[in-house]
Specification:
Blueprint (H helix, E strand, L loop, with lengths): L3 E3 L5 E5 L1 H5 L12 E2 L2 E2 H4 L2 H6 L1 H17 L4 H13 L3 E5 L5 H5 L4 E3 L2 E8 L8 E2 L19 E5 L9 H10 L2 E5 L11 H7 L3 E6 L11 E4 L2 H4 L4 E3 L1
Parallel strand pairs: 1-13, 2-5, 2-10, 5-6, 10-11, 11-12
Antiparallel strand pairs: 3-4, 7-8, 7-9
């Protein structure tokens, strides 16, 4: 399709999902079979799973850390970082992904609504900030504790928990004149509602991914294809 014009007055909100990381070789969560990288979600990514068996949760996320360390940003990550470099304060990125591929590509103005793989936080939610932690643990005995005594858990939003930074995300959507959604199925809420919120504010909305999402009708443009190929040259910044 023709390049999408971004004027000097536009504010761009980008939402990315598992599809963009899949192009770097990281597995996606498949709701159809309830498995994530061969594990049942209820065994490794719920508050109940943590209460039952924190080591099983840590074993799973240590594996995800190992996978993430091997992955490299792909052209889609770099294309979004380049767009941010051109727009500055008029650009905002929200990712559903927990990897750090966006940061490694150069993105700065972003939030991880589902947490970050390379951080840990107190299981007691005592208010202390998450800490950087890239350790690939081999036993629960290696996992540290918070100053309050609570065991450190992955800084991940488990299923059933509230996504992070929602106030800031809603504020940024309210200011956006263009929303770009990349590589998400439109089946996970509240992220699937972001396009509807943007449309209510009058924003143009663009979807990029290998197939149309479940909420495709909410987009003014649906561009099917690999993000690493489509995003390069998609935007013409004026």
């Amino acid at each position: 399709m023709a390049a999408i014009s971004v004027s000097g007055k536009d504010r761009v909100f980008v939402l990315t999902g598992a599809g963009i990381s899949a192009e770097s070789g990281l597995p996606t969560f498949r709701a159809s079979d309830g498995l994530w990288a061969g594990h049942r979600i209820e065994d490794v990514c719920t508050p109940e799973a943590w209460q039952r068996n924190p080591w099983r949760v840590w074993e799973f996320y240590s594996g995800r850390r190992a996978d993430g360390a091997k992955a490299e940003p792909n052209p889609a990550h770099f294309a979004l970082a380049e767009l941010e470099a051109k727009l500055g304060e008029r650009f905002f990125l929200c990712t559903q992904n927990v990897d750090d591929l966006h940061e490694r590509a150069g993105s700065v103005r972003l939030v991880h609504m589902h947490g970050e793989l390379a951080k840990s936080r107190c299981e007691n939610e005592c208010g202390r900030a998450p800490v950087e932690d890239r350790t690939i643990y081999t036993s629960l005995d290696e996992v540290g504790r918070c100053a309050c005594g609570g065991l450190l858990r992955p800084h991940i939003v488990f299923f059933g928990e509230i996504p992070l930074e929602m106030d800031r995300i809603q504020e940024e959507i309210g200011k956006a004149t263009l929303m770009v959604v990349v590589g998400t199925s439109g089946s996970v809420y509240p992220a699937a509602n972001f396009v509807h919120w943007a449309r209510l504010g009058g924003a143009r909305t663009v979807y990029v991914g290998p197939e149309a999402p479940l909420n495709a009708a909410a987009f003014t443009h649906v561009v099917e294809g690999k993000a690493g190929e489509v995003l390069l040259g998609l935007f013409q910044v004026g």
